[in-house]
Design brief:
Shape of chain A: elongated
Distance between the termini of chain A: 18 Å
Low-confidence stretches of chain A: none
CATH topology of the largest domain in chain A: BirA Bifunctional Protein, domain 2
CATH class of the largest domain in chain A: Alpha Beta
Largest interface: A-B, 94 and 93 residues
Number of strands of chain A: 21
Mean pLDDT of chain A: 92
Radius of gyration of chain A: 28 Å
Strand content of chain A: 15-25%
Oligomer: homodimer
Helix content of chain A: 25-40%
Number of domains of chain A: 2
CATH superfamily of the largest domain in chain A: Bira Bifunctional Protein, Domain 2
């Protein structure tokens, strides 16, 4: 995106930037597979009925129409039209129900795919972007240990990206039952409304949120302030969490024997389990943070957001939660828990803030020079020999002056230029081949059947080449 | 697609089938990178103006509209609306012009991405599918050796898929200039029309094509028959090709001194070069086949289609050609040559006809058993130790009876079940761990820090498990 996308909100990377994105994708996939997640891909479209069912982003949908239908789009009812998926969770739920007979449950899957949001164009918002998701879906029930394990898989995946310039990531967890119980204990009833306003805290600040709670959610000033006090509560272990929460309940007159407190307590116990278990396995990776609300209304228990050290303005780069009611088949439910990395935004941060760079644009380690066009077949044979040994090789586009061929290699970041012997025969293996490292200037005799590039120059790598901006 | 796609034309694979598709994608990418192609991804959308410019598939476009625009779609002129790309060549041309200052030319790129065709639903036609493309784009000019090399890269890529059940692939090449020169030599002028009808030869047969040439392209009976004779011409070397072509010209009174013959000769020389050079590097991989026309009207020279031995009904699985006029910037042209594999159709063939199968559904080689929920953390530690050594591991979902845990492993194809020692401590490494190969029944003592799975069972692989249908 060196020059910005030519259609606002539809980012595109230059080849050198794509190397970084591809490395991020490969790294995440590797971690997901090491953890036993199955890879799937769902179609890009869902029916209007499915897309409009759940979630606040349901307003931000791209609908499709065939060119032939232009002018007659409205002949098809909205529910029957096709639209592009806005996340990977709604498609997963549909996929699981559709193929339940062919899946082993609990079904653990990873999915890295593009999603689309049909928003009005606005600065810095992507309308097409890649998400990297892991979810586990149970048939009938789903053990709560996955509510600890899935955030930890994401933490270990993000940990692997730190060598490419990503700061340390911390998962901030909350539980909807805890929030709901507390709000009900205060006497509030518009739970969805309160959660939606609390979710705006980082964007508009406490005073604005308090105003919205009073104006739109039936709260009085004191109830609104209590909601904000809950949102300020953080804890890094279960005992601390329970103590602070109970103190807050006592302060606001929420009795421990009421239904509201019991509901909150369910959420609190799960949240305490999550932070304590996570601390045992990866200390400092997960904290309880009771302002986490999540806009999407399909979450029913745990919710997560993930922040990078020193990158608060970036917002959450990995979010998710537990959803017990998203998918069902007759009376059978398919509860799930999952997290999603906003990969495009993460890659944008790595490129433009963290200074991640590819060591070379081309995957080729070697450019085979061509002395004149009659020798091209011999040059191709040398390249093929290198390739058969796993060494990526390109061949000079024309038999231009050697300086021009070296310049082409240099522009692509290809570290080695191969000089075929002038008398190369049928097998392209005449004695007299030489290879030059154009970074160091070293030039040595070489045989394509046995030569190995220096390990420093062998692989296309992503490194941090300095922070460009704060 | 065990049960067929739930929306016609939008295929989706089961996890075990996705393993095969992912392996095909990984294999193609590997070959493309070994050959020095740069990977890019373009946005899924282009403007109407760009999509409607070229190509017969321009009629098969999905246009987008935001949910809020429903009922007002027609307020936006067609050229300004967004639509999903129907191939990866039109987006590449736009990308190259847009980013020309940041690219090294000739620009060699691979791209594996979904495309969409807004067709009426019909049996067996995909409306969403994955294409795997390689192209090389020059700035100003492009050497013709790429017209040999690109089909050969595709041949070597398809060769790597033979171990997964794909039959041998042969590229059938033609040249538009050759056809055009011949048609003009006969006195025909509607060249696009003739090419379009000849392209239908395999589908509707010679008699029907002759009829269409007479009815719609201004040909008389004898001209139509001459066009069909040209389409019957095949050759596996340049000399044979030239002799047969010249004989045909003589028979139909096309003089070698006319402009028409000279144009045909240009095409013939390039085509002869292609088959001869290809024969020198990979004998039998490319033949001249003068019935190859290609529907898309952006091709200006070489055109290719690729057929699998014994799978004629599948049609071409890898097609492309040279296009000199698709992209330009002022007076500067960006000529290109490229080929595209219809990956979804290929994977469908491999799964349903060639019998390609994953040896296991889960990427995990090991399932760590859990004796009771209190021991889960120890089981997780064992799994983490294996993962840190590159061994993919899953952990049993519940502390169910051992038989049930083994059944879960078996259903996912996980070959090893790990039994933690009952007294596993903090590091999960207590003496007494054992691991059982549930395929062979072998059970041995094991330490997660040093144990290695048998190579036969270590990796998730794709193999041929017998042809299911003809």
């Amino acid at each position: 995106m060196a020059k910005g996308a030519s259609i606002s909100g539809f980012p595109e990377w230059l080849p050198s930037e794509r190397v970084v994105e591809q490395r991020v994708i490969d790294t995440l996939r590797r971690v997901f597979e090491l953890n036993g997640f199955l890879g799937i891909e769902t179609r890009a479209v869902e029916t209007g009925a499915s897309l409009l069912k759940k979630g606040e982003t349901s307003k931000e949908i791209y609908l499709l129409s065939r060119l032939q239908e232009v002018g007659h789009e409205s002949d098809t009812p909205l529910n029957d039209r096709l639209g592009l998926h806005f996340d990977l969770t709604v498609p997963l739920s549909r996929y699981v129900v559709e193929h339940s007979g062919d899946l082993a449950f609990p079904f653990k899957r990873w999915q890295i795919q593009k999603v689309w949001r049909g928003e009005r164009p606005q600065e810095g918002r992507f309308r097409e972007f890649v998400q990297a998701d892991i979810d586990v879906i149970g048939q009938g029930d789903l053990p709560d240990h996955y509510e600890v394990e899935l955030p930890l898989v994401m933490v270990s995946a993000l940990e692997r990206l730190r060598e490419f310039g990503l700061p340390k990531a911390t998962v901030h967890a909350n539980n909807r039952k805890l929030s709901e119980g507390f709000y009900r204990g205060l006497g509030l009833t518009d739970i969805e409304g309160v959660l939606r306003e609390i979710d705006k805290l980082d964007k508009i600040g406490a005073d604005e949120v308090a105003k919205l709670l009073v104006e739109g959610c039936g709260a009085d000033e004191s109830q609104a302030r209590a909601c904000l006090e809950l949102a300020e509560l953080t804890a890094s272990d279960g005992k601390e969490l329970a103590e602070r929460f109970d103190a807050l309940c006592a302060k606001h007159g929420i009795g421990t024997d009421g239904d509201a407190y019991q509901l909150a307590r369910q959420g609190l116990d799960t949240l305490a389990m999550i932070v304590d278990q996570a601390a045992a396995i990866r200390p400092g990776s997960v904290i309880a943070d009771l302002k986490i609300a999540r806009g999407l209304d399909y979450y029913t228990g745990s919710v997560y957001e993930t922040f990078l050290d020193g990158a608060a303005s970036l917002g959450s780069i990995c979010s998710g939660g537990r959803y017990d009611n998203l998918a069902s088949q007759g009376s059978r439910k398919y509860p799930g828990v999952g997290l999603s990395i906003g990969l495009s935004r993460l890659v944008s941060y790595m490129l433009h803030t963290a200074g991640a760079r590819a060591n070379r644009v081309s995957p080729a380690a070697v450019l085979v020079a061509v002395w004149n066009e009659a020798d091209r077949t011999a040059a191709n044979r040398i390249a093929d020999t290198l390739r058969s040994r796993g060494i990526a090789a390109d061949v000079a586009p024309t038999a231009a002056k050697l300086g021009k061929q070296i310049k082409y290699a240099d522009k692509l970041g290809i570290p080695y230029v191969w000089f075929p012997a002038a008398d190369a025969g049928e097998d392209g293996q005449a004695a007299g081949d030489e290879v030059k490292n154009i970074v160091t200037g070293d030039q040595v005799p070489a045989d394509a059947k046995s030569w190995e590039p220096d390990t420093v120059y062998a692989r296309q790598e992503v490194t941090i080449q300095g922070v460009k901006e704060a």
